[in-house]
């Protein structure tokens, strides 16, 4: 039987890999992602200040002792609204410095695997590095299982059937716009719940979709929580939470 | 270094696994999916009549000689419209018989891995088996990298930034509804292009999005084709084709 590592290949010198690490369970990394993490010179990842970082935590079982790592700590995450000039300034400097660090190491011939939760091209911070470095160094993006796939799987809720239209909405939208989006879709995933929980629930209720809505927190992780939105008594605020509204399209 | 197979685990007797095989490149299977394919008693898959089946083709490098397989051949695919009573009757009988075959083997204690292109709970035929068997036998669904993730990755087109709303629309919708959906979204993926190509292109043009639209055929497979929608001269009709319209949300 062929070994999974043999299929997946290894890292090339001087190349930046944007590696999707999937929704949380390490078994949901792709063969390519796992093999690259085990073969790059440096594993890089984002983290909230003073934390280990979720992506880094997910891949822990894959890392060998002595693996070289670089942690990039956000100067700010949700303490300031993303449309505030201070947020823009602080995150802008952080991204510029981070890109310079990556570029220097890559130009010295080292390979770097930059971890991204879910899929790197789907609301990923990796995209801000891709934007700066894609024309400068060799870059390979490794798609991943999205957080939302992990969540609807664990909720045992097939999301889109037949001709269902699926809308993915950030919970950061204002309430009226959220409600409009919900009302005009067959199936919905609401991401980035965090501190937006109460607003999101009101919008789902106003759109008449609360009966079908499922709240999923840390789907596929060991401490996941899944419950009907109507049964949520408190107001959770975890980063890794979503509301899933499955479609009702063609069943045969 | 830990072996990837050791992380991913093996199949349990009498269990049905709905296995997402990702967009096309075998390296984009998850560790869990690959290890299950190598350990189930029977690998099952859907196929168009007389064909090998795309999912089966994707996992070929993982299969050992002598692996037991069952091919389930659709009696009809796109020869009859999906809303025609004959389609419903023929596909309905096929699904019922298929579920009975699976159930019989599972109850004899065999484990079965039923392959699904992309993610099993995202427009997957597997869902029709899940619906019939989830309360009858143990079922585990293994999420996969969706076809659309594979396509936007290969098109080098990050799909959703910041507060972008992403809409996933089947190309089977009528032209007016398609156009409406396109006009009210930041980022769009149009699936199920197939014979709908001309209509889809007209809708994209009418919504003023043709400049940003990318046509991706068989993304991540060896014979993929990627080109700006405006540069498509002919009218392709492949099952594995999509139109990707990347969002333009917050760049920092």
Automatic annotation (TrEMBL), chains A, B:
InterPro entries: 4pyrrol_Mease, 4pyrrol_Methylase_sf, 4pyrrole_Mease_sub1, 4pyrrole_Mease_sub2, CobI/CbiL, CobI/CbiL/CobIJ_dom. Residues 15-228 form the Tetrapyrrole methylase domain. GO terms for molecular function: precorrin-2 C20-methyltransferase activity. GO terms for biological process: cobalamin biosynthetic process; methylation. Its EC number is 2.1.1.130. Pathway: Cofactor biosynthesis; adenosylcobalamin biosynthesis. Keywords: Cobalamin biosynthesis, Methyltransferase, S-adenosyl-L-methionine, Transferase. Gene3D superfamilies: Cobalt-precorrin-4 Transmethylase, Domain 1, Methyltransferase, Cobalt-precorrin-4 Transmethylase, Domain 2. It comes from the Bacteria. It holds the Pfam family TP_methylase. Belongs to the precorrin methyltransferase family. This is Precorrin-2 C20-methyltransferase. It comes from Hyphomicrobium nitrativorans NL23.
């Amino acid at each position: 039987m062929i070994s999974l590592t043999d299929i997946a290949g290894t890292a090339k010198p001087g190349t930046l890999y944007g590696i999707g690490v999937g929704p949380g369970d390490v078994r949901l990394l792709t063969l390519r992602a796992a093999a690259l993490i085990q073969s790059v010179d440096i594993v890089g990842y984002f983290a909230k200040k003073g934390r280990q970082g979720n992506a880094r935590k997910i891949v822990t079982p894959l890392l060998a002792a002595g693996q070289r790592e670089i942690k990039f700590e956000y100067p700010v995450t949700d303490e300031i609204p993303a449309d505030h000039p201070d947020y823009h300034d602080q995150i802008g400097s952080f991204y510029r410095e981070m890109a310079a660090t990556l570029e220097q190491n890559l130009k010295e011939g080292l390979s770097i695997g930059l971890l991204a939760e879910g899929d790197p091209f789907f609301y990923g911070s990796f995209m801000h590095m891709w934007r700066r470095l894609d024309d400068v160094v060799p870059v390979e993006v490794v798609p991943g299982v999205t957080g939302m796939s992990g969540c609807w799987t664990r909720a045992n809720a097939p999301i889109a059937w037949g001709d269902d239209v699926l809308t993915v909405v950030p919970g950061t939208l204002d309430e009226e716009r959220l409600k409009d989006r919900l009302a005009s879709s067959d199936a919905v995933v609401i991401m980035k719940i965090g501190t937006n929980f109460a607003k999101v629930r009101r919008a789902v209720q106003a759109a008449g979709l609360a009966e079908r809505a499922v709240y999923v927190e840390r789907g596929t992780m060991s401490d996941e929580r899944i419950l009907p939105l109507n049964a949520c008594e408190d107001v959770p605020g975890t980063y890794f939470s979503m509301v899933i509204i499955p479609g009702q399209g063609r069943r045969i």
